[in-house]
Design goal:
The complex is a heterodimer. Chain A is mainly α. Chain A has helices spanning about 5-15, 25-60, 75-85, 90-120, 125-135, 140-150, 155-165, 180-190, 190-205, 205-215, 220-250, 250-255, 270-280, 285-310. In chain B, about 70% of the residues lie in helices and about 0% in strands. Chain B contains 14 helices and no strands. In chain B, helix 3 (about 70-75) packs across helix 14 (about 255-290), helix 4 (about 80-110) crosses helix 8 and helix 4 crosses helix 11. Classes of the chains: A mainly alpha, B mainly alpha. The interface between A and B is large, with 112 and 109 residues.
Chain lengths: ~325, ~290
Amino acid sequence: MSSPALPARERSLEGAHAPSTRKPLTWRLRKYIGLVFISPWLIAFLAFDLIPTASAFYYSFTDWNVIAKTSNWVGWANYERMFTGDRLFWPSVKNTLYYVAFAVPLGVVAGFLLALLLNARIRFQGLFRTLFYLPAVVPTVAAVMIWLWIFDTNNGILNWFLSMVGIDPIRWLTSPDFSKPALIIMSLWTIGGGMVIYLAGLQNIPEELYEAAEIDGASGWNKLINITVPLMTPTIFFNLLLGLIGSFQIFNAAFIMTGGGPVNSTRFYMLHLYEKAFQDSQMGYACAMAVLLFIVVLAITVFVNWSSKRWVFYG
Amino acid sequence: MASGMTQHAPLHQPARRLNPGKLLIYLILIAGVAVTLTPLIWTISTSLKSVQQLSTWPPQWIPDPIMWSNYSEALTMLPFGRYFLNTMVLVVAAEIGSLVTCSFVAYGFARTEFPGREPLFLLLISTMLMPYIVRLVPLFVFYGEIGWLGTFLPLAVPDLLGRNAFYIFLLRQFFRGIPNDLSDAARIDGANDFRIWWSIVLPLSKPVLATVAIFTFQSTWDDFLGPLIYMGQNPDMRTLAVGLYQFRNAPGGENLMPYLMAVSTVMMIPILLIFGFGQRYLIQGVTMSGLKG
């Protein structure tokens, strides 16, 4: 499809000067040259996105099991089993919702407040920003190991700090009451990632708006509520969406730290799915769970996007 | 709270006087930094302790004696050299995929026109939001059937084909900002699109290429589930992340904690170095992804 360089040159020169109505060949081919450029991704998309996703939809209606080597059509049986037959399915849903309900809003609000503080005219601004961002680049598995040790009941640093204010040792990772809060605390360690995005948004707010407000005698609080927050809604929306999608798929921390325990209190949706697929080899059932997650994430994206019309201000 | 008040103080007033509001900001920030850094300091501290020192109460921040030998012992307990090489193979494949293939694809989306470009670009964006788990199970079985499990191929091949929509997106945003005059001039001189991509667009795109290179390194270095599922069957094919996880499950429990912290520290070093040198590009990339989406 690519034309050799030399003839192309002649033709395009000719095309530029001759009053011909027919466009030169390279121009007509140029219409398709873009397809050549995107073809690697197109192949990858078909092979690694579209076909596997379509297969997952198909297999969610089968009793596909790689060990037993079965793959029979079972209709809605997997979905029925999720809602009525699998006693660990609902706990996994509840755990995930619990985690999302706390980790996402806390992360969005804390990241935003931190960005506001770091947007103020202060000394060592760059250093502060770097230090707060640092945890966001720590490799996940290393971070999980670090927190595993921080949460240690007897020798962990967190309980040591708590003991200084007179709180008895908490069994962070071995008590079902504290395992989810522990994972939420850990997730707040990396709010620096969202903070950077907020900071970029804050820098895009025109200075004149604040100046005009000051002339009108607006207080700092007024400016925050009436200028900063409304103009930041697109950025907040972006972080909220990313946070929701990521948190619904929480896996690594629970998988490595607690393995779903104690008493299934950190058995999140993804963890349950992982076990069904890779420990029990129930690929069909796992596909049905994956499809449901896919639909839920899609629905959330659409809903947040739709609701954003009411609260996101695109100036 | 503070952004309005403090940022827009008139310039002629010397900002030297520390007003109460600012003092509060400093106090909050310093407390925040302390909370943020404590886990890292605690990690390094633990990595240099003997097993006996683990349970001293109150905890010792500077171990005595300092057990430097923890590092050499931890890194030889499992074949971490091998794990490092495995990780680097994936990193190299991913970097080639990001810098060559993704930029090639991004050129197509940014600077050529073809029927269906916009819907295809939307499709590309939508793959960023898709939960990866949906693909995982069918791909796992498929890779098993074609004998790819326990090799680099399940992770390297999609990367090399430029499957990563996020990088394509970032590169496209940047490529679109390059003035058309340059490529038009080159076209009149007889350059075709491949030439323009390679000789004009890429050399002008060093900042975004640096950003994508850093992101690629970070995410490949960080990836856990992929290497665990696709390569974990073969003990020789573990990456650093999977190796560290195996270490956690090794018998010995809490006594291994100094070793575990030592390996965690070592695993952080490359990424922190890159972060130190490429911070500007990294932040630029995060910013681009957040604002122009």
